[in-house]
Amino acid sequence: MRNELVRRFEDFGTRAAMFDREVSFTYEDLVDRIRYTQIVLDKHGVAPHDVVIVNGNYSLSAISTLLALFLNKNVVVPLVTLNDRELATVTEHCRPRFLVTAGDELAVEEIAAPGPGPAGMIGHLVDEDAAGLVLLSSGSTGAPKVILHNLDTLVGEKLETRPRGRASRLNILMVLMFDHIGGINSLLSTLLVGGTAVLPRKRVPEELCALIERHRIRVLPTSPTFLNLIIMGGYHREYDLSSLRLITYGTEPMSDELLRRINRNFPEVRLLQTFGTSETGIARTTSESSSSTYFKISDNNVEYRIVDGELQLRSRTQFLGYMNYADDSPSEDRWFRTGDLVEETDDGFLRVMGRAKEVINVGGEKLLPLELESVLLGSPLIEDCIVYGKANAITGQTVCVDVKPKGELTRAAVRKHVLEFLADKVEPFKIPSKISVVDRVEVSERLKKVRALPRDGGG
Amino acid sequence: MKDQILKIIIDAIDDINTMREEKISTENVLDLCLYGNDGVFESMYLVAFLSQVEEGVEDEFEVEVTLASEKAVSLRVSPFSSVRRLVAFIEEELRLAGAGAA
C-alpha cells in the first residue's frame, strides 16, 4: 500500500498537487518533500509506531510530514493549534515521543524518552504493523475525546478509487480543518487521485471566495453555516464563483430554508450532503436532489440502522476506540451511536433532524432547534438565528433564540416580529420565551454554529 | 424603585395583551394573580412573561435577574401569586445584586 501511494504520486509527476500561499507544487515536489522529511525524521530517531504530534495547518510542509509519518508507520496526531488542554490530553493518553512543528521550517523535538511499550490500544496498530491517526473531538465541555484510527485503513479505502486523468482534474478548496476527519478525508481523496488541493491560510469567507475565483475551484466542501456567511456577506456577488460545480455540505444539519437560500444564490451548482463522524469516517452519500435535505448512504463500506430515532453506523473505516473514554467505545457488535436524530422515508432516504443532546424539553414537549431555525429563516427580517434551550425552574427548559436581524431593529421590534411570525406556524410551546438580538451568530473554528446546550443554561 | 418595577410589569402585560384575544386587565394590577388557581398565565406563558420582565429590569437597572428560578418557586409564598409579591421579589433580587441605590 505504501508503495502504491508513492507510485501514484510519481505517476502524477508534473501535475499540480497543491497551491500553498500562491505557490504551486507538483506531485514531484511533494515526493521530494516527503523524502526530505523522512530523512529529517530518521535523523532525529523517529522510529516506526512512535506517536508524533504534528503541529501545523495545511501547507506543503505539514502535508508532507503527515504522509512521511504514514510511510514510516507512525501514529500521527495532527493539531492545528497547540493549546495546553489538548496537549495535556494527548500527552496523558497517547504518550507522544516527538513534536514536529511544520511551519516554514520543519522542527522536530523529542518530548519523551522511548517508553516501555505502546500506550493503550496503540498496541493493536503495532500488531498489525499499521500507521495510526489520532483525532480529538471538538466537545465543548470536559476533556476532548481521543479518537484512534488505523491510518492504513483510511488510506487503503482512498486507494480503491482509480486516479483521475488530467482532463477530469479535481480542483478542490481545503476548507475543513487539517486536524478534523472531514479535512483529512478531503485531503486524501484529492491527492490520491491526482487532484489539486488549494490551501487557504485564513478560513474567512472573503479569503475563500477570492481563492475560488483565482484558482477556478470546482469543488467546495463546507458547512451550512459557512455557506450562509458567504450569502449574508454578499461575497458570492463580489467574487466570480462561476467555476463551482459541486458544493458539499456537512458537519452540522442543514435546514430546508437555508438550502433554499443557497439554491437561489448558486443555481448552477450541484449540492451534495455528506455525512460522517470523527469516529466512523466520511460515508459516500447521494442527495435526493440539490434542493433536498434527504440523502442516502450509498457506501459499500458503511452499514446503518436507526435505533430510537438515532442513527447508528458501522463502517470499515471505523475508529479503533477512544483512548480516554473506555466506556463509550463501540460495543462488541461495533455499532457506533452518532448522536444524530434522523427520519427515514419509505425509499431509504434519511434526513438529519438534529443532535440528540440539543433536544429542548419544555414541560415534556420536545423540540429540536433546527426545526424552529428553519421556520425563522423564512422571515424576510431575519438574516440568521440560533435556537437553544435554557433551564428554568418552572417548565424545566424554555426555548430561547438569538436573532441577527436584517438591518437595524430594536429588541422589542424583533420580539414582536418573531412572535407574530411564528404565531400561526408552530405549536405554542415552541414559541421562544426569550428573544435576544445579536450582531452575529457565533461560529466555531470548525465552521459550525455554537449552540448552548440546555444543561448549560442558568436559572 | 417599586414604581419603576411596576411600570416594567405593566408594560410587559400590555405588550402580551396585543397578542392575546382574552385581555388581561391591569386595573387592579397589584392584586393580579399571575400563576395558580386564579392565575392569568399557564406555565409556558408565565415563563415568557417573566423573561420579558427580566429584559425590562435589565434595560432599566442594568442588572441581570432570574425570575423563573429555584429560589422563586421554592418560596413559601409564591412571588407569582400576585404582582405585588413579584415586585417585592424583584426588589429583593435587585438589592442582593447591589442595585439598591438605583
From TrEMBL, chain A:
Family per similarity comment: Belongs to the ATP-dependent AMP-binding enzyme family.
SUPFAM superfamilies cross-referenced by the UniProt entry: Acetyl-CoA synthetase-like (SSF56801)
The keyword Ligase belongs to this UniProt entry's keyword annotation: yes
Domain of life: Bacteria
PANTHER family: AMP-BINDING DOMAIN-CONTAINING PROTEIN-RELATED, LONG-CHAIN-FATTY-ACID--COA LIGASE
Organism in which the protein naturally occurs: Streptomyces tardus
Gene3D superfamilies: 3.30.300.30, N-terminal domain of ligase-like
Pfam assignment, any one: AMP-binding_C
Keywords recorded for this protein, A-Z: Ligase
Protein name: Fatty acid--CoA ligase family protein
UniProt keyword Ligase, yes or no: yes
Domain AMP-dependent synthetase/ligase: 10-311
AMP-binding enzyme C-terminal domain sequence ranges: 371-442
GO molecular function: CoA-ligase activity
